[in-house]
What does this fold into?
Amino acid sequence: MLTSYPDISVIVPVHNSSRYLGECLDSILRQSHKNIEIICINDGSCDHSGQILKDYRAKDARIKVITTDCHGVGSARNRGIDIAKAPYIFFADSDDVLHREALSNLIKIAMTSNADIVCAKYKKVKNPRLQDERKLLGDFSLNTNPISCFGQRPPQTPITVWNKLFKREIIEKVRFIPKVFFEDTAFTLDVFSKANTCALCQDVTYFYRTGNSSIMRSHITEQKINDFCSVLRTVDRQFQDKPDMHRLIFSTYLNPELLSLLYLRFWISKHLRRYMHEQVQPVIRSIQKNTHTLVPNNCGINGKNCSKTQLLWEILKSRICKN
It folds into this structure.
């Protein structure tokens, strides 16, 4: 039963999600922790998502439905943050599902540890089966330097928002970049840089649906690549006055998958192919061979004291991340 003040605001951006939306909402409604509000932002859906939301709202007063024009998932989440009432905020994508004890587990850890952020593990599955859920243990460790979660390979938690419980006071002044892909990246890094503590839970509480042809999980496009570069440019600016954090992020965050996007951005731009061959490739080869690094004068860093990915970013950002 919902009290006057919910403990958790669950924000669900919805765009043409009719195929899986019901499963997502069912998994949230059946949470063992009941004192929640569910804020669904119908972001310009042109399928049956609007009617599904209307039907679910009629069945459960905890569901709020906000209808907007198609502004993108970042703007939808921002709208959800603006109207959220609870002291904790959880983000869910409209085609994923939650473990029955997900929110109960996360808020117990948050209350026990007083952590600003609680991160749980997730599992990629094609068809989540909630009947296979197992009892959660609730074990966690506390990190007093949250941004360092991304300073390992692999990182201790992915740079996403949907497997985390946030204190509202930590994120209420942070917003997602509107109308771009990879909007999670700048938001999550900014929030983690502001947080004092982060609790890391070993339980799988979130099931990420694979094989989905939605706009966010479809094939790589030039728009996605350009948006990724735009997000990186934003992150670069965010941490210019925090050199230690900047070094940590850009020396570990650019994993091979994301680097491939930058490579591809070069190859689809014919006029940059020569620069790729003549400038970037030799630097990468020299780093791999641990020989003297030929760093361009405008990089502003010492090639001997930076990682391969940090150096590559410094070289590329002036070429593909311009306004």
